[in-house]
């Protein structure tokens, strides 16, 4: 395995990545980590500096889909040209984990949110933003990408302690193995427990709706008001977008934290493994169904339906499971159909170009 410098280790280059580095490429390129994605370029951290980098062109960068392009958290090989004035990204080092969703809009395209995250902090404010069905969606996308989820409940200063404990119990009853931490950005109660999780060289990300306090938490963890925050609307407690870019930040203890914009749309593509893990209570019940291909909707002797009717499984939990399953399967079919169409079109264009060259 290749030895790496302490600086790269602090940026998150652990033995998993070191064992997958290409020794031949290291003779030509430097290692860097993507810390921000802009419209036309990328901010990268190398062993020695922070600078802007670009991909050469779509024709020279070997990408089959949008998922192959660099995203925040990626490790990449880079080269310096023109007396080090231009930095090009050659290729992406294999990803350990990833965070993706269906892109906004009607097309079933998958969008990478970030990569190489160890732990995702899924934030909900404990007042009007608290939503178990949305929480289950976040759990699906984090677990599908092999990321450890931790639930953060913010704004505990707004509710009595007994209500806060009820919310914790409700989440842990539904998801027994999940870590739930509560805190307040105003009083700073509970921040110590969050800081204790932040290990050197480990990468974390903040996920949640606008207005739950992600940017304020990031400022508190950084120890200064680096990023701008906005107040929520009083009439409905809905947040305004503060973070507009996904960005990787290095904390004082050398933990790494990615802030993400609030997501109004969180649709799921595929992610069968994440669905099974999030709804493992239903998967376990399904083993007792009479039919191995039971759809858990109208079939006789369905163990899941019996559990719902008996009150052992909540109707809301069951309906969300069905909805996410159908949505993921539909988006996955559409995604691969679009990929096939794109490949056929690409082949046609190449054929036309070859024909013109021959003539």
Offer a few descriptive terms:
359 residues; OB fold (Dihydrolipoamide Acetyltransferase, E2P); single chain; Ribonucleotide Reductase Protein R1, domain 1; 34% helix; 3 domains; alpha/beta; Rossmann fold; five-stranded antiparallel sheet
Q: What would you note in describing this structure?
A:
The protein is an alpha/beta fold and 359 residues long. The protein contains eleven helices and 13 strands. Helix 4 packs across helix 8 and helix 8 crosses helix 9. The longest helix has 44 residues. The protein is globular.
Alpha plus pi helix count? 11
User: Which residues form runs of ≥5 with pLDDT under 50?
Assistant: 232-241
Let me know the largest β-sheet.
Answer: 6 strands, mixed
Choose one word for the global shape: globular
Average pLDDT rating: 84
- The CATH architecture of the largest domain would be 3-Layer(aba) Sandwich
CATH topology of the largest domain: Rossmann fold
Which assembly state applies to the chains in this document? single chain
